[in-house]
Write a structure and sequence with these properties.
The complex is a heterodimer of chains A (about 110) and B (about 120).
Chain A lengths: L3 E3 L4 E4 L4 E7 L6 E7 L6 E6 L3 E5 L2 E6 L4 E6 L8 E8 L7 E2 L3 E6 L1
Parallel strand pairs in A: 2-11
Antiparallel strand pairs in A: 1-3, 3-8, 4-5, 4-9, 6-7, 7-8, 9-10, 9-11
Chain B lengths: L3 E4 L2 E4 L5 E7 L6 E7 L6 E7 L5 E2 L8 E7 L2 E6 L8 E8 L9 E3 L3 E5 L1
Parallel strand pairs in B: 2-11
Antiparallel strand pairs in B: 1-3, 3-8, 4-5, 4-9, 5-6, 7-8, 9-10, 9-11
Classes of the chains: A mainly beta (about 110), B mainly beta (about 120).
Chain lengths: ~110, ~120
Amino acid sequence: QKEVEQNSGPLSVPEGAIASLNCTYSDRGSQSFFWYRQYSGKSPELIMSIYSNGDKEDGRFTAQLNKASQYVSLLIRDSQPSDSATYLCAVKASGANNLFFGTGTRLTVIP
Amino acid sequence: GAVVSQHPSWVICKSGTSVKIECRSLDFQATTMFWYRQFPKQSLMLMATSNEGSKATYEQGVEKDKFLINHASLTLSTLTVTSAHPEDSSFYICSARRLRQGGNSPLHFGNGTRLTVT
């Protein structure tokens, strides 16, 4: 069983729509969750971090965490073509120093 | 914010030669840095954890004698790919974490090094 699972996509949404990206994880004791954006040929850049259940909003981005369901999501409102990238979910498992990454979801925002 | 610098950004080398990649934390000290490798259309795979002043911890399946890691200071870790072969061609990315209470702060990534072995 993979530590972190994501739907690989591709996910296509029209410009201005809401993009919803989902992620599940296997270690129930995980405490830290992150969303990274990676453009083709570039390294990942941090978008959001979330540590407690509920929603966390930052501009057009909202991260949602449900530890009981071992589920974390990222919503992108008013999607822009520049949001087109691969979004990586990362989890810091209990007792681990590194992050476990999902395989990423490729998002395409259609103008 | 935290900045991690990685050099070089790309390198082409001949099979059998060695390549050194540097990773620096520019505005913070990092006792631990992480080296990842990413093949096309795949996710990041952790290769090893670099520990300042001690030996690196390698993930299963990663040859420690082939991928030499040195973390001689609190701001610099190096990865040397020795006797490189075409199958080592990949995108190598380092990362570091600015330590905060609880150690749950996110990883910050360098810009990556694209290695091509001919």
